[in-house]
Amino acid sequence: MKTKLFLPIIFISLMLPLLFCGCNYGGDDNDYEPIYQDAIYIMDADGSNKQKVIDVDGCCNVQFIPNSNKLLYIADNSLYTVNEDGSDNMKISGELNVRRDLPAISDDEEKIAFAVYYDSRDYIYDLYMTEPTGNELSNLTNSANISEKEATFIQYQNQEFLLYVTYFNMNETNFSTLCIMDIINYHIDTLYVEEIESSSFYGGFSYPIYINNQDKLFSSFGEWEENLIMYNQLFNGIKETIFTGSFLNPIERSFTENKIFFNPAQIHCYNYENDEIYSLIKGYRYYCSPISNILVYCSSISSNDGDIFTMQSDGANNTKIIDEGFAPRFSLNGDKIVYVGKYVTNPKRNLLTN
Predict the structure, then answer these.
(1) Among 134, 176, 229, 231, fewest CB within 10 Å belongs to which?
(2) Is there a single domain that holds both residue 257 and residue 312?
(3) 268 CB contacts (<8 Å, ≥6 apart)?
(4) Mind listing the pLDDT tens digit for each residue in 149-164?
């Protein structure tokens, strides 16, 4: 009888530490290491009504496809669409190796332009175009020795064009250009050409922005020290250097005010009507609401470890609206924000009650 009692007593004594240790399964609470899953989220513009759309790994950009219930995002160098409720998740870029820049969506929402690594070589990209369904995937440029990237759809003289950046080498000298393509006839015009001092395909034009109602073209140009430049018209314009600094990209615009935003270490605003520049706040991945002067941005440069804030375009009313978010974008009517976030997949558990 003594032997039969001895074994249960040993078993109970060994289990007691596990029953009262919480969720660390034998370790100290300070040893708990949460495991996170990245996901795409949608929330109201004030940060309320947060809803998870879909789990995703390696997502670097996400945006609304206007006038639809779909989102467009890049993950692991592929392009996807997904419904806002998380259904019908579909890769639309085939086996292409997609560059991580934000894709461009046409005004009629029927065309998506994006850059693809040419034959998997660094620095060389082609521009492709497809539809939200992934049909009719086509190479717009198909050039082995010219790199095309950072495309955006623009309206010029009541016609839609694709504005983009190129890099190429001629006679052992690197050049960068700003070009536009007529996406009906695929005719290409070179707007401006500049020599690049760098030995690699860095330091040329980056992230051009065209303001069609003002006929002004903005871009950054340079490598470590960059210039924010403006041409006073799309074709044959006069160049003016607005600002000189480091890492000015990306350039975003206000849809309701005569302002553009750029980022030399922190968010700056240039009011091109008053020719005035002022500093706002340290932040990244900023985007202005299409219907107001509200700017959304995140506090982390490349991950969802930071938080998401909104503020007015003059820097007023800076407000944190959500913890742990990245790459936020407004919807077309400005009432929703989509972003990349994360959640814990191994929450603490009490072994006595769970």
Answers:
(1) 134
(2) yes
(3) 243, 261, 262, 277, 278, 279, 280
(4) 999 999 999 999 999 9
* Token reading at 15: 């289990």
- Tell me what pLDDT residue 271 has: 97
Convert the pLDDT of each residue in 172-193 to its tens digit.
Answer: 889 999 999 999 899 999 999 9
Q: Which residue has the tokens 């003002």?
A: 214
**By the 8 A CB rule, do 117 and 97 touch?**
yes
Q: What integer pLDDT is reported at residue 201 of this predicted model?
A: 60
- Taking residue 201's Cβ as centre, other Cβ atoms within 10 Å add up to 20
Spatial neighbors of 11 by CB under 8 A, at least 6 apart, are none
User: How long is the chain?
Assistant: 354
User: Same domain, yes or no, for 197 and 333?
Assistant: no
- Token reading at 66: 């206007």
Task: Write down the pTM of the prediction.
Answer: 0.87
| Containing structural domain, residue 25 | 1-33
Question: Per the domain annotation, does 81 fall within a domain?
Answer: no
